[in-house]
Write a structure and sequence with these properties.
Helix content is 31%, strand content 28%. The protein is α/β, with parallel strands linked by helices.
Length: 180
């Protein structure tokens, strides 16, 4: 795992060596940022189920003004802190440890331009989390959600959202959603 572009380009990130974390591959990450590259500069970014923080760190490296990382696992939070320190991107970052639906309630009133959501595959968290994002009204009017799920998983978009794009990369699927 490495930072692909921007201020921290080339930095090798610490990878999880414990169960329960499935990092987004560099291939998927590179394709994701090829799609959203024009939207990252100056964006407020939310990385939910952040794990090692690779996605949010990439966003910060490419010019996001803020990234809030959310994860419930202490080991992931520790790894994320190490990666932020290593890349020296910790000044524009905030880490929140907790259960995702509860954390999203705490974020009510804050607004994010890009929300990256990478729940555990095949656990039916995606729809619940997207609904909670909409319920807390934390997605900017012109913002969008990027949902990473298993390539064989189904996701039916909330009626308040438009499906912008869906791309499959091996065992992962990226779904891009925006407000109607």
């Amino acid at each position: 795992m490495r930072v692909i572009s921007g201020k921290a380009r080339g930095a090798v990130l610490y990878a999880p060596k414990f169960d329960g974390v499935r990092p987004t591959t560099d291939f998927v990450k590179e394709n994701l940022f090829n799609i959203i590259q024009n939207d990252v500069m100056g964006a407020r970014f939310l990385d939910i189920f952040a794990g090692s923080g690779a996605i949010g760190i990439e966003a910060l490296s490419r010019g996001a003004v803020l990234c809030v990382f959310v994860d419930s696992a202490q080991k992931s939070i520790e790894l994320l802190r190490k990666n932020l320190e290593k890349t020296r991107l910790d000044t524009n970052a905030a880490i929140i440890k907790g259960d995702v639906p509860q954390v999203l309630k705490k974020l009510h009133g804050k607004v994010f331009d890009i929300i990256f959501l990478d729940p555990p595959y095949f656990k039916n968290f995606a729809a619940k989390c997207v609904d909670a994002i909409l319920e807390q009204n934390i997605l900017a009017r012109d913002g969008f959600i990027v949902l990473e799920i298993g390539s064989k998983e189904e996701y039916t978009a909330n009626p308040q959202l438009d499906l912008l794009k869906e791309k499959v990369y091996g065992s992962s699927k990226l779904i891009f959603l925006s407000k109607r």
